[in-house]
Amino acid sequence: MNLEDELSPKRSYVGILEGLGAGLLALLLSVSLARVMTLENFGELSSARGLLWIAEVIASLGMGSLATRIYRAKQSDSNEVRARGLRRVAPLLIILVSTTFFAVLVGLHESIGTQSAVKMLSFVAVVGILPLVCLLTFFTASAAAHGAGVAANAISQWGIRIAFLATLGLFLLQFERPLTVIQAAAAWAIATAVCVLSLWFLVLRVEPKYLHHGGREYEVPSWLKVGLAFALASLGTKVIRSGGVVVLGWFHADTSAAGRLTAAIAIATLLMTATGSLMMIYRPALVGAIERSDLASSKRIFRLWRRSVLLMMLPTYVAMIAFAPSLLEFFGRGYSDAYWALIVCATGNLIFSFLALGIPLYQFTGHETKTVVLMSTLAALCVGGMVILGSLWAETGVALATVVTLNFGAGLVSVLGWRATRSWKVPLTPPSETMRVQSE
Q1: b vs e for 327-344, b when ≥16 Cβ sit within 10 Å of the residue's Cβ?
Q2: What whole-number distance in Å separates Cα of residue 321 and Cα of residue 306?
Q3: Which pTM was predicted?
Q4: In the chain, what are the domain boundaries?
Q5: Cα 351 from chain centre
């Protein structure tokens, strides 16, 4: 499959529509939870899940990004040996590390969580699915690296939400309303387990045959070093994006504000899920171009990315702003106060959609460590901003700190990524020939 086919308008728009559909499902999920839980319980659940998403970045060890690099690298005997080894050992490492990390988090919450609005049983119920969430991320990235990004997105975004809504419906038949945090967490755990199994079967079906037979090489120390570099780089972004509800739940002990912020994020996330789906399609192609130091293909990939974002994301943003009050009313009483938080989140997400592809450009050009330092610094500044602005304007202040830091970081990393491509040699062949790349 050449680059024009892999990133065709049809495939890109299908990916965006799939992401928007998944975002609508996520929105329906959040509305459903808000309707069957109290505002305080919904906020408590959101605060615990915010910490879960941050923990997942570290506990997954960056194995998804590492798998993308190895599976999409130029095919050779040595790389095939490494790929077979990674395929075998990565899931085991993820399970071991994530289980250990969960135990550490429980101990920390027991010792320092006395001021938190998140109760211990709720914390254990929500964060206990950490190993499943980590495996979900790894298998999604593996399937996308093998050319099944659309199918992987369908399972990890559509599938998990449909499974959750179905499980939630069964719980509502069995238990009285309002649901507790533990009951909601149990429904989410069941849905996640179903999707992990589905993704595993998908990977087995689409992965190349050379991964099934032959020698293996286990470069575990090297993999951990590179994978953790990717993970730590993503950690900064995740803290910026998910840290708001954690700050409101732990630092300010305000579960109502956390619930309102979650409602605003759920609506604005329509843009983020669409960006994520598009990224699963574009990122493997970009990584392949970076591995070949192919500047012409990289520029073409970014042009196609901007076109897709402009034609599909901007109209979605306009509609979101126009109907913001009505959308918040779906969540129930007490959520209309999140109006300005929604405006801030939606505007920030639209800007980030244009900048997002610059992050892997800088990461995969050999600047993993610098990305870690940059995003970690910005994350620390963002948390400080959340604490200060959250004390002034609650969820709106936290949202403002989030989008300013996130987009400043994404813009800076994009600039640095293009500067790194200056050392690439411009190929003598025409761009049309340069862009004819073979998918692994």
Answers
A1: bbebbbebbebbbbbbbb
A2: 21
A3: 0.81
A4: 3-434
A5: 17
